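dumping these here so i dont lose them again. two proteins, back to back, each one seq then C-alpha cells. dont judge the mess
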Amino acid sequence: MIEKTILGHPLGLFVLFFTEMWERFSYYGMRALLVLYMTQHLIESAHSGHPVLGFGFLQAFLESLYGPLATQPLASQIYGLYTGLVYFTPFFGGMIADLFWGQRKAVVVGGLLMAAGHFLMAIESLFLVALSFLIIGNGFFKPNISTQVGRLYPEGDPRRDGAFTIFYMGINLGAFFAPLVCGTLGQVYGWHYGFAAAGIGMLIGLAVYLFGQRYLPESLLKDKTAALDQDQSLTRQDWQTIGGLVILATINILFWAVYEQQGNTLQLFADKNTDWQLGSWQMPSTWFQSLNPLFIFILAPLLDRFSRVLVRYGKDPSTISKMSLGALMLSLSFLVLYFVLKDTLATDKISCGWLVLCTFIYTTGELYLSPIGLSLVSKVSPVKWVSLLMGMWFLSSFFGNYLSGYLGTFYDTLSKDHFFLMLSIIAGVTGLAIMCVKPLLKQVNRSVH
C-alpha cells in the first residue's frame, strides 16, 4: 500500500469513497425505477405473452403464501424480496472473503456481477436473473469495501471515526444523484436507459477501485484453524447482553419495514398522488428519492453539533432513548400524511410540500436510529462475538425489507389515509417497544446510560 495523504487522510480513503459513491449511484438509481417499472410495464407484459424467466414460478410461490396478488401487491412483494436479500447476502460474502478470497477479489467480483445485473435489466425476459446478479454481487461488494476503510488506519488512530464519516458522505452523494440521473432517464426516455445508466455507474466505480488498488490495504485472510480454536466462552452477563441485542434487533425489523416504504409505496404515491408541477415544469417523481440523502447531508452535522451541546450540559438522551425517538419520528412522518389525506378525495393530488415534510421527519428519525444502533452493537457486544452480532443486526434489515414488501400489499386494498395510519401505528409501537429493552441492557452494561 502506497502512503499518500489528502486532507490528512490516506489517498486510499478517497479511492474507496468514489468507488462506494458510484456503487450506491447504481443501486439507488435502479431502486428508484424498480417499483414503477414493475407496476407500469413488466408485470403486465409478463401476463400478456412476453415471458420472463422464472416469473410464473415466483408468482405462484408468492400466491401460495398470500393468495392471489394483483399487479401492485405482486410488485411490492418482489421489491421486498429484492431489497431484503441485498442485506442477507453480505453475511456470506464477508465470510467467503475472510476465509478464501480476500477483500480485494470479493469487491471486484461483486462489482462485475452488479454491473452485469444492471445491463441484464435491459433484457426483459432476464429480469429475475438480473436481480439475482445484483443480490449476489452486493453480497460480495458491500461488506468488503467497508472493511478496507478501517484497515487504512493503525489501531487507535483518531482519524478513523472521521474516515467513516467521509465514507458515509460518499454513500449519500451517490444516493442523491442516482434518482436525478437514472430516474429521469428511465421515466422520460425509457426504462432501459435508466438501468443502463446504473450499470455504467457501477463500471466507473469498479474502474476507480482497480486503478487505485496500490493505495489500498492488502487483503487479509483469517487463519481458519485459529478461528476454530479460539476460546468462545461467554459469561452470564455476555448472554444477557446478547439476549437484549437479539430482542432489540427483532424490534428493529418493524422500523425498517415502515422506513423502506420510501422506495416502494411512497414512490407510487409520489408518482400518482402528488403534484410535482413547479411553474411550467413537471418534476419527475423519482426525484423524490433524492430528498432523503439530501436531508442527511443537511441534518447529520446539525444533529451532531446539537448532541455535543446536550452532552456539555449533561442533557444528552441515552442511546436507547435516541433509538426510540427515531422510531417515534418515523411514526410522526406518516401521521402527517394521514391527516393531510383524511379529508382529501381519492382522486386529488396533494402538494409535494407535504411529502417533502414527511421525508424530512423520517430522515431525522433514521439518523437517530440507524447509525446509533450500529454504535450500540459495537459498544455492548462481547468482544469475541462482535462481528457475529453485527451480522445479526444487518439481518434485521433483511427481514425488515422483506416485511416492507408485505406491508406494501395493503397499499391498494386500504384507503391511502388508513394505509399511512397503519404505518404510523406500527412505527409508534416500535418506538415504545425499544424503550422496554433499555432496562435489560442497562442492567448488564453500564455504558448504556
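---- next one ----
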Amino acid sequence: MELIHFEGLLIGITTFLIIGLFHPLVVKAEYFWGTRFWWVFLVWGIGGIVVSLLTGNVFLSAVCGVFAFSSFWAIKELFEQEKRVLKGWFPGNPKKKRGAGDKD
C-alpha cells in the first residue's frame, strides 16, 4: 500500500490561513497608516519570492509563494479598502486625515 502524502493538504490549510491573516491585516494597515503602507506589502512579496526561489524544500517554497502573492494582492486590497472606508462600509480612523493618497 502506498503512503499517504499530506503535503498538498498542508499547503491548502496554510494557504487558507495566510489569506485569512491578510484580510484583517489590510483593514488594520489602512486604518492606522492608510495607503502609505503599500510598500511594506511589496517588500514582503519580493522577500517571499526570493525565499520561494532559493529554498530546496517544496512545502516551504509553496508556502512562501502563497505568502508573496498574497502580499501583492494586499496592495490592491489596501487601495480598495480606502474606497470602502470612504463609502462608509468600514470605520475610518478619526485621528487620521483622509484625502487623495492619504497625504497628511
